[in-house]
Design a protein that fits this description.
It is a single chain. Helix 2 packs parallel to helix 8 and helix 4 packs antiparallel against helix 9. A hairpin with a 3-residue loop joins strand 5 and strand 6. The protein has nine helices and eight strands. It has 250 residues and is α+β, with helices and mostly antiparallel strands. The radius of gyration is 22 Å and the shape is globular.
């Protein structure tokens, strides 16, 4: 089953984009080929750009505080697993403390003149070539262990941010119940009673070679399946299409 996710507001969309960048960063940072580490550096600077444009750290801290308040209120409800609740509240407190103790995210990269220069070069198409920046080429000639040690030093200050957004998205994803649905003639519509979801999750059998196009507001959820034609342009699916759906909100 292939999972597709649709953010219902810009806040969740931003978190999913940053999560995607962290996933790419961690994948290529583990690669042994020096070109993997080139992509790691470019991705790290993308995360730095996002941190410069938005107060992502502050938004995550506020979101975690809101979740902590909502979870604390559940303690009065019958049937609540207090041990599990305490674990979740403890995890939120730990992550919030890490973020609160941190200054500006990625400041170590900004303070490093060589990294600042490399950041500007990587923004230029082909700017990372040995012709443009021989010092970067020299860094790439280091051993795998040395490059990994450098990457770890540069990535580590971003880890509290990663743990914070991962916790928020995990709680959000866990909030939805997964249901088996069928899109009649390739389309599914569900009327809502004013409840605004934050995230839609759709699983589809990969053998069908289709993908969902989704939208949602407080009145309706709409899922329409399509497939790529010979020219790769999306074509509507007209067959009944079984899928799994989870609507998430915290």
């Amino acid at each position: 089953m292939i999972l597709y996710e649709y953010p219902c507001n810009e806040r969740i969309r931003s978190l999913l984009r940053v999560e995607h960048l962290f996933d790419r960063l961690f994948f290529f940072a583990k690669g042994e080929d020096v070109r993997h580490h080139q992509i790691s550096m470019a991705t790290l600077f993308e995360l730095l750009d996002i941190s410069d444009r938005t107060d992502l750290r502050g938004a995550i801290v506020q979101d975690l505080e809101r979740q902590r308040g909502a979870l604390s209120a559940l303690r009065q409800h019958p049937g609540v697993d207090e041990s599990r609740l305490d674990d979740m509240l403890g995890e939120i407190q730990t992550v919030n403390s890490e973020l609160g103790a941190q200054g500006r995210v990625g400041q170590n990269l900004r303070d490093n003149e060589w990294l600042a220069s490399l950041r500007g070069r990587l923004a230029v198409p082909g700017g990372s070539s040995p012709v443009d920046m021989p010092s970067f080429f020299s860094w790439q000639l280091k051993s795998f262990e040395e490059r990994c040690r450098d990457l770890k030093e540069w990535i580590t200050p971003f880890m509290p941010l990663y743990r914070g957004l991962s916790l928020i998205l995990r709680m959000l994803r866990d909030s939805g119940d997964v249901r088996d649905m069928v899109a009649r003639n390739g389309a599914y519509q569900e009327m809502l009673s004013g409840k605004a979801y934050q995230l839609l999750r759709v699983w589809i059998d990969n053998s069908r070679r289709v993908f969902p196009e989704m939208s949602a507001n407080k009145y309706v959820i709409w899922v329409r399946f399509a497939m790529q034609g010979n020219d790769l342009k999306p074509q509507p699916v007209t067959d009944d299409t079984p899928f799994r759906l989870s609507c998430c909100h915290v």
